[in-house]
Amino acid sequence: MKNSIFRTVIIMAVSAIILFCIMLPAINIHDIHFWLYLLILAGEFILLRTGSIINKKIADSMPRKGKAKVEVVKEAKPKSEFASLGKFVKFVLILFVAGLLYIFLSGIFYSPVLNAKRYAQRIQVTNVDFSEVPPYSFNQTAIIDRDSSEILGNKVMGEMTDLVSQFQVSNEYSQVSYKNGTYRVTPLAYDGFVKYLRNRSEGIPGYIIVNTTTGETKLQRITNKMHYVPSAYFLENLMIKLRFSHPFTIFGNPSFEIDEDGNPYYVCTTYTYSGVNSLRRVEGVILFDPVTGTSTKYAIEDAPTWVDRIYPESLVNRELNDWGKYQKGYFNTLFAQEGVIQTSEGYNYISKDGDIWLYTGMTSVANDSSNVGFALVNLRNHEAQFISTSGADEYSVMASAEGEVLNYGYTATFPVLVNINDQPVYLLSLKDSAGLIKMYAMVDAKDYQQVYTVKAEKDARSAINDLIAQLSGSGYIEGDLTEKTITIEEIREVIISGNTVYYIKAGGTVYKLPLTESNAMAAVFLKEGDTVKIYYSEIDNEKVIQTLE
Length: 549
Description:
Layout: H1 2-23, H2 32-61, H3 87-109, H4 112-120, E1 125-128, H5 146-158, E2 167-169, E3 174-178, E4 181-190, H6 193-199, E5 204-211, E6 217-226, H7 238-245, E7 250-251, E8 255-258, E9 264-274, E10 278-288, E11 295-299, H8 313-325, E12 341-343, E13 348-352, E14 355-364, E15 370-378, E16 384-392, H9 394-404, E17 411-412, E18 416-420, E19 423-431, E20 437-444, E21 451-455, H10 460-473, E22 482-487, E23 490-496, E24 499-506, E25 509-514, H11 520-524, E26 531-539, E27 542-548
Parallel strand pairs: 1-16, 25-27
Antiparallel strand pairs: 2-4, 3-4, 4-5, 5-6, 7-9, 8-9, 9-10, 10-11, 12-14, 13-14, 14-15, 15-16, 17-19, 18-19, 19-20, 20-21, 22-26, 23-24, 24-25, 26-27
Helix pairs in contact: 1-2, 2-3
């Protein structure tokens, strides 16, 4: 009997360690993984002890060697099979059932049916005007999406002959605000277990950084290499290191970021729940240094300002949907559906005030291909804004842009919302079958049939400025124009992406004049020495002439 108990203890101890390293649950009653961990161990214990008791009964019933079997007839006593498991096993079984019942009842008690108001108030949304969206700035607009960033990153990695055979590029590609620009960053990763063993003493040598406005991509090598990363094994694995450093903290998947000096970090959001795994709320953040393996836990308000993503996109989208669904109670979402709105099936990013804001359209539950407004959420501090304005949803805009270049067969990326003269406009890329950007498009958010395209080229800034000029000159986007009479000192005609553009120098200032239907006749006859009245606007630090007389 003692040998049986000792064997059970050894097996349970080994199982507990192995299972903990696989599941990595927080030792926290709010974590569903912790309860599953306990239930699995309890189930294993019940099976082991039950098997041990059954084996003992079988052994006791067998006749012993060299002794005659003496049959003794005793009065049968009613005894349940459950009781035969033993008192301790019975106690564990009761706890097992109680744990399952607690998880089940917790899910009911904290469900939206009973807590619609709490779900609706998970995020505090403020109604604002569209002017809260910052005016278009080329350096602050992410026009290169994740898929294109991956293509650029893999291309750069393929050119690194000293690294490509030992490392691969991680698929993280986190969106960050860095040095007044917008970028995606992703670390290199060990290319399998064998190459981890071969390179672990040196560590990961750097990360890929992609400028999502210009497409400039480079491998940033670092002096102090990273050792504690997701692609490492054993105690150098990032998740294992984090769990043993913070055993009681519930955290999600870390995201890779860099500080303003280019030093790598993993940003790991921490959570708390109501009951078990219900009403998830962000509690703080852990900053993990993959070079040294050290980590620091911060409250949200104390986190360094360079941190861009404390609130993950998946949680923000769920909170916005709960806010849109449960404002008037749970049963309203099932029957009347009065005022019920939801996020569109996608999101993008806006850089604002040095932070990354998630942008998504909000549409009615009727799915009528139109938005009732836009939602913006700061991924660092959870500030949320709603802009009430009707317009086409993002997928209608994408289809409209694709229809404009149907003969090329290009596919549209999910659009970015930009502010052109205080008017909402969608900016998107059009890509070929290889995933390469071939054109840019702008679509009026209120009238998605108005599509303007320009061929992509190395100078993306000029191409997009030409789009803005087309949109402004069309009359669909009206903004404040500056009136001025100038005398032309010099005029140059330039072809950019197949479009004619004039650069006019007057009084030491250079003006840009895109050739549009409205000004074509006047523009082609301009010559040096002419005096003309122009109406221009400031677009991304360029003076762009909209009309002239």
